Amino acid sequence: MQTNEKLTFPKMGCGTWAWGNRLLWGYDESMDQELQNVFNLCVANGVTLFDTGDSYGTGKLNGRSEMLLGEFSQAYAGANQDNICIATKLAAYPWRWSRKAMISACAGSAQRLGKNVDLVQMHWSTANYFPWQEWGLLDGLADLYEQGKVKGVGLSNYGPKRLKKVHKKLSDRGVPLTTLQVQYSLLSTYPVTELGLKEVCDELGIKLIAYSPLALGILTGKYSEKGSFPKGIRSILFKQILPGIRPLLLCLEAVAKSRNKTLSQVAINWCICKGTIPIPGAKNQAQAEQNIGALGWELDSGEVAELDKAAGNTDKKMVQNIFQTQ
């Protein structure tokens, strides 16, 4: 018997992809209390959607991101406690071939979380390399919904053509497709402006989730062409992109100054004004406070138009996810 509860979403969520990356590089247990504080701060301020994945924290840290979120949600007691929604993405690993594989994967996530997954998502489509593998995995997600083990089913990195096919497949089984998660920001408008995903999602009743709304930190104003760069591969990316986005950053600065907000808050609010649910990452309380400051107000149509124009005129864009389909 189906026992699904209604799945609702706040205006903004927290993407634990940032935590997941941190878990892979330099993580130690001393971070746990800081991350618990971040979680508590977010929930207390009405940010109750938390997105993670079963591939965040691998090897020795197998599933550590999910385990932490489970611990944090169980330890939290306060405002909005009953509204906490934990979404996880199940990876389409090559060894996952069947619906049973996804049911088993979700059971593993639930065990690490200490509770059932609220929103289960396909982490990426295999359409670009093994399209036939995908259908069995999607059947597994539908099975989970029909069995009442999850409240909703979502996708990640799907384009409109593939989205419509999956939507029909799930609809034929009476399973609603709740969300679609794509890389979306002022530096990554491709999914909306070129693929037209927002219109398709609106037509199908699907919520569009924007991951990396701050473009890995480029839109925070923390970095400049002549300043310091982050460590690792991001340094190479930032050196390539920053010189070509000066007009966009100047526009962001002007809007932020007029609103008495930060660049990050304006960039996140722009995503909200576009009808998406942004999921900025937060590794400490300062970052969480910055993100929360994007709520409770809205850019006006003129400001959105200015930012749209500046984004459209940038010489550089963020590299698209290789799994993003058409």
Beta-sheet strand percentage? 5-15%
Strand order of the largest sheet: 1-2-3-4-5-6-7-8
CATH class of the domain at 13-217 and 275-292: Alpha Beta
Level-2 CATH architecture of the domain at 13-217 and 275-292: Alpha-Beta Barrel
Order of helices and strands: EHHEHEHEHEHEHHEHHHEHH
The count of DSSP E runs of length 2 or more, i.e. the number of strands, is 8
Find the structural class using helix and strand composition: alpha/beta
> Which homologous superfamily in CATH is the superfamily of the domain at 13-217 and 275-292?
NADP-dependent oxidoreductase domain
- Biggest sheet overview: 8 strands, parallel
Give the rounded overall mean pLDDT. 90
Query: Could you name the CATH topology of the domain at 13-217 and 275-292?
Result: TIM Barrel
Estimated helix fraction: 40-55%
Report the total helices. Answer: 13
- Specify Rg, calculated over alpha carbons: 19 Å
What best-fitting shape do the alpha-carbon axes yield? globular
Note the gap between the termini.
36 Å
Low-pLDDT residue intervals, each spanning 5 or more residues: 16-26
